[in-house]
Amino acid sequence: MTTSIDKDDAGTRSTASTLAIHDGHDAISEKSKSESSDSPAAELEPSAEASRPESTITEDAAPETALAPPAPPQLPTGRRWALTLIVMFSMAMNGGAQTGLNIALPLIQTELGITEANLQWVASAFSLTNGCFLLISGRVADAYGRKRCFIGGMLWYAVWCLVGSFMHSGPALIVTRAMAGAGASMGIPSGMGIIAGNLHGRQRATAFACFGAGAPIGAGTGMVIGGLLTAYASQTWRALLWIFTGLGVVIASFAFVYVPADKAKGPEHDRRIDWLGAAMITSGLVLLQFTVSDGVSAPRGWREPYVPTLFSVSIILIAAFFVWQWYLKNKTTYPPLLRLALFTRARGRLGAYYFVGFVAWTGFASISYHVNLYYQQVKLTGPLGAVVRFLPVPISGIICNIIVARVIHRVPLQFLVCFGVFCTGLSATFLALSGRDTLYWTFPFNAMYLVVIGADFLVPTGSIFVSLMALPQEQSVAGALFQTLLQLGGSFGLTLTSVIATTYSNKARARGEDEIDSILKGLQASFWLAAGLAFTAFVIAVIFLRGIGIVSEIAQRKNKEAAEPAPQTEKGDTHV
Q1: Which of 153, 175, 242, 292 has the most CB within a 10 Å radius?
Q2: Burial of 575: CB neighbours in 10 Å, binned 0-12, 13-18, 19+
Q3: Are residues 326 and 358 in the same domain?
Q4: Is position 479 within any domain?
Q5: 541-567 per-position pLDDT tens digit
């Protein structure tokens, strides 16, 4: 097995390296194949995938002829930065799309006649489809071209934002938001694959830092722009959708010009896609999210016959998906949609990283949604007043982006993640302690600049770690899995905290409290839940992410593997 690490510009040591792995092995007996396949340790590193049948993964070759694939050609400095900004703005657009309409939710509710229980679907429909279609989008990008998928996703997103701006009913707007989310899901994994396939060294680390920072910066900026349009534009929230339409077209146009063309695939490149698995996981996740939300908004809640029925179906579909993926990998030559080995890479730390991201994002997304309601419905600031109070979010996001890009080569990834999710939990705690008469400069202000730290420290480090652990031909789908868990975490977190907020508000009304105090009780309960989720992610990160080290250390370990054979277990399994 030959492993190569992409180097930075000449004369500079690579600290955030990318793995280009090309496996080669001698013919082995059927017995040794079986032992290697059955051992969990066989999939701790990307190189373990070489044990798969030759007809499925074509990187197998004889040791004497196996050569590492060449590093991507060094792009001119201007084009590298153009590529970085294109992908970053696509992520910022994605973040803004999820929060930009939040500031206008009270107005949308009144204008379109949406009930309080269904109002959260205006926000969560986008993140739901965004998360559900990321995996299949990642596989399509790896199979048919990341640039094509990226441009197609941006244009699809733009079309449905334009259509949504002309909707005059709640259900119609929700459908268009869901369709726009599907388009955005095509851009995220292909964008990560574009970075991994065209940049290396420090430039790649910087690009991933910008990519990860794009979402929280876009979320904060989208909230500010949405508030200004709601307060001053005659078309209010519809004008925001027009801006997103134009932004999607501009990003697609620049990507067409500056993103390098997809590399030609040889005849041995396996383009088959597991459509059955895609249908299982997508429908399962959609049904799960729907039943969790509708279990509260339905007239009789979980006592409605269809709610527990669909919930059971969703669990069965999700479980069947994982069984199906295992079957495809171990019993057939058909490529699975998701390689379950991803969860065991780096002795299970990659799986732990995925889980930390999911739990942390449940808290982050719910804070971003409910703090707007706190300002407008409890503090009665109006849209413009809420915008002013959100200004620390994008400012903090930009500062965090600069800090992460400079320290990610020097500070262990575990420390960065733990610090980030702890700040998110602290932000939710400050908001939970904020009352009707709390001054902004006490708890709310501190919550505003703290909430974005978690996202800005979690996403870039996770993206780089995933790219180091993934095979070259699975960069998009591995990144898609990370983003899927973030998106679904946000969607589930928004649903759960909305359920809690509605429940506690109704209890307060039943006790005879006035409307504002009733809303406050519900929002405080949602913030406490968000804080608990964020601190849970912190504990998981402290326990299960130990020993990851810094990016340069990971690269050095890979360099060592390239020079020396990896140690073997009794069954011939490779350790990290």
Answers
A1: 153
A2: exposed
A3: no
A4: yes
A5: 999 998 887 876 665 665 565 455 544
Let me know whether 267 and 288 are in one domain.
no
Residue 564 placed within a domain = no
Report pTM.
0.72
- Of 386, 284, 277, which Cα lies nearest the Cα of 334? 277
Q: Is 567 a domain residue?
A: no
Q: Are residues 395 and 475 in the same domain?
A: yes
**Domain shared by 488 and 518, yes or no:** yes
Give domain status of residue 487, yes or no.
yes
pLDDT at 469: 82
442 plus 409 within the same structural domain: yes
Same domain membership, residue 430 and residue 531: yes
- In 97-171, at which residue ranges do the beta strands (DSSP E only) sit? none
| Paired sense of beta strands 19-22 and 2-5, if any | antiparallel
Q: Are 19 and 558 in contact (CB under 8 A)?
A: yes
Alpha helices (runs of H) in 100-201, residue ranges in sequence order: 105-112, 116-132, 134-144, 146-164, 170-198
160: amino acid identity, one letter = W
Look at residues 372, 430, 423, 365 and name the one whose alpha carbon lies nearest to residue 396. Answer: 423
pLDDT in tens, 482-491: 888 887 787 7
The encoded tokens of residue 81 equal: 């930065």
By C-alpha distance, which of 463, 452, 464 is closest to 421? 452
- CATH number, domain with residue 520: 1.20.1250.20
Which residues have C-beta within 8 Å of that of residue 152, sequence separation ≥ 6?
186
Beta-bridge partner residues of 574: 568
Contact present, 354 and 135 (Cβ < 8 Å) = no
Note whether 395 and 446 are same-domain residues: yes
Residue 329 is part of which domain span? 274-334
Measured distance CA(471)–CA(463) in Å, rounded = 14
> Residue 374 is inside which H or E element, if any?
none
CA distance 57 to 23: 10
Residue 24's pLDDT is: 40
Which one of 334, 354, 375 terminates a domain? Answer: 334
CB 504 within 8 A of CB 521: yes
- Cβ–Cβ under 8 Å, residues 20 and 71: yes
Q: Are 44 and 347 in contact (CB under 8 A)?
A: yes
Number of separate domains in the chain: 3
d(CA 350, CA 46): 11
147 and 104 within one domain: yes
